[in-house]
Amino acid sequence: GVLQLVQPLARGLVAGIDDPAIGVQQRRRADAGKLQDLRGVDGARAEHDLAAAGMVDRRGLCVEILPEQHHVPARLVVKHPAALSFEEAAAVWMQYVTAWGALVEQAKLGEGDFVIVTAASSSVGLAAFQIARMVGATVIATTRTGAKRQALIDAGAHHVVATGEEDLVARVMEITDGQGARVVLDPVGGPSFEPLTESMARGGILLEYGALSGEPTPFPLFSVLGKSLTLKGYLYSEIVSDDAALDRAKAFIAAGLESGALKPRIARTFPLDAIQDAHRFLESNDQIGKVVVTV
Which of 39, 116, 149, 253 has its CA 20 to 30 A from that of 159? Predict the structure, then answer.
């Protein structure tokens, strides 16, 4: 169904844009009075106290703002969490749905598990920290250098491994008393894939949701065979396109936001006029958290 929210033409919008772990999504804005296309935007709001935040998938479902009505697919709308500002609400859904779908829905992460989270300073990485803590798991975050170590600890990681300075396999085995991590959440691929699987526990699962490396990703045959590992490609759209899974995601995330266990972290906020600066900031990889653009 389509939920129609009757409001005057919106004067402005707030939207979260993705970080490099997922790929920066595009947005277009038409002239006032015409259709405004927010395809790919995590959340949006009109300045007229529209009490909803939309989740928009990559298959083209979008929020449409017309002169007299807002047309939003009802299944992709949630009530604005009362505890969050509109900027925070715009920075919620992509990363929490992505991390929840991988860790909870598919990997069945739970009490006593260890999870390795790579590209840890991304919005999905930070969301994974919080979700893992909610279900009682221990987070091992990876980052290239130690520059972000304390920031990642402050954001919720139990342990941080700087892969450019430390031996990943040795550190993970030290942290897990030689057992390895049962779950890995990775958007990078490339040469790091092999040491990640060497760091895993027997029967573990690695969820690959990106290809940031750009280099060939070797298949770790001996680790997969020797440890009976599961390697799975994972997409956000697997959850958004499944009504039952999406309902479970909404319920989990809403409960976490209400309790305070989930709290979106905004790295910086930019006006639309500075959208190029926002993209440059994303590409710098200096951010820890989400980038929000106000319109």
Answer: 253
